[in-house]
Amino acid sequence: MTKSKKFLNNIIKTFGFSSSKGGQNEEDLEKIAAQEQKVFPFETLVAATKNFHSTHELGRGGFGPVYKGKLEDGREIAVKKLSQSSNQGKKEFMNEAKLLARVQHRNVVNLLGYCAHGVEKLLVYEYVANESLDKLLFKSNRREELDWKRRYDIICGIARGLLYLHEDSHNCIIHRDIKASNILLDDKWVPKIADFGMARLFPEDETHVNTRVAGTNGYMAPEYVMHGHLSVKADVFSFGVMVLELISGHRNSSFNLNVDAQSLLDWAYKLYKKGKSSEIMDPTLASSAVTEQVAMCIQMGLLCVQGDPQLRPTMHRVVVILSKKPSNLEEPTRPGVPGSRYRRSHRPVGLSSTAGTSGESNSRSRAFDSSFTATGTTSAAPELDDRGKRPAES
Ligand SMILES: Nc1ncnc2c1ncn2[C@@H]1O[C@H](COP(=O)(O)OP(=O)(O)OP(=O)(O)O)[C@@H](O)[C@H]1O
């Protein structure tokens, strides 16, 4: 048995995963094998984190606390410790381990290994030094460090990471919880997509998965919230929200500028229609902004958050747009309101009217029905937890 297969099997055995359909791709597993040292002895993690000392705590997420640690060889790590009380967390935790064991990309956080010690379950990641994008953008006085070049590079990096998840990894992975707090920045400001607790793996040959709505308020695509239609376009929507947040410095979920707009998306769209989209730009970008690029990114962001998922570009298209000089892009239609029905009145003639069931031949673009049925108002959806999150499927 190859080292990598052993690693995956070990994870499955340790955390009690059922084996996946269709078997594993040997080549992918070889890549995983390239990483050494997958199983961490508990004592190593105790020593690295000074016995999980509170001063080493980086933060706390849905699973429980995350600690910073240093291995004997000098490598810095982040250790995610599953809180023993959380059943919900356990499921997401396993999901994260299983999915991350399959992916390796510069813009996706690297899982170094895992540890199971009695009831303790821990995941070990590369330490990402600059913390999460939301802390930098919304919660610190360090926002000015994010000049335009950095923000543009972050947008491009996240786009490449998402493209990899959607199209280039062995299976199509829909992250489902793309948001600023799930983007970690390393010491060179390279963005890493993190937190795969909500992510869904879609084998090529599967067309349907019954899923419950899970995600974070302010980022979730309307067709997903209202009808449970899950496709890669839900991630594209969340990506678009994040692009507009990065450019404006405003959080969509708590948008409260004294302007005639209900949300950041609405505000950006209204200004765009008046030819004044640059007014949404964070004033701290004034000296570093490349006007044409900013305008292009706003337009691209608006294309991503369009109410109709079929009109949103794929991540492949987004990456192409970003790699070219600003050129003519199509006109965005009205943005979707996260948590409400999208309007169909702006649909161009000739496009099918069924949300998320585009005629694209790529099975990755297909939508997935949900066991969650909304009744037309957001109040029908499951309650949000204290972090603005909907629970994952039970
Ligand atoms: N690899 C890492 N390197 C550095 N910091 C990390 C790393 N992973 C997580 N963190 C930090 O640990 C904290 C908790 O992360 P975690 O992914 O568990 O939850 P979250 O994304 O903040 O919340 P939620 O689970 O609700 O999405 C975050 O503040 C994040 O900045």
UniProtKB/TrEMBL annotation:
Entries under PROSITE patterns matching the protein: PROTEIN_KINASE_DOM, PROTEIN_KINASE_ST
Biased composition (Basic and acidic residues): 384-394
Low complexity: compositionally biased ranges: 368-381
Residues of the Protein kinase domain: 52-328
Keyword Nucleotide-binding: yes
Keyword terms: ATP-binding, Kinase, Nucleotide-binding, Transferase
InterPro entries membership: CR_Ser/Thr_kinase, Kinase-like_dom_sf, Prot_kinase_dom, Ser-Thr/Tyr_kinase_cat_dom, Ser/Thr_kinase_AS
SUPFAM superfamilies: Protein kinase-like (PK-like)
Chain intervals for the UniProt region annotation (Disordered): 328-394
Pfam families: PK_Tyr_Ser-Thr
GO MF, one annotated term: ATP binding
Compositionally biased tracts (Polar residues): 351-365
Domain of life: Eukaryota
Protein name: Receptor-like protein kinase At4g00960
Organism: Prunus avium
Lineage: Eukaryota, Viridiplantae, Streptophyta, Embryophyta, Tracheophyta
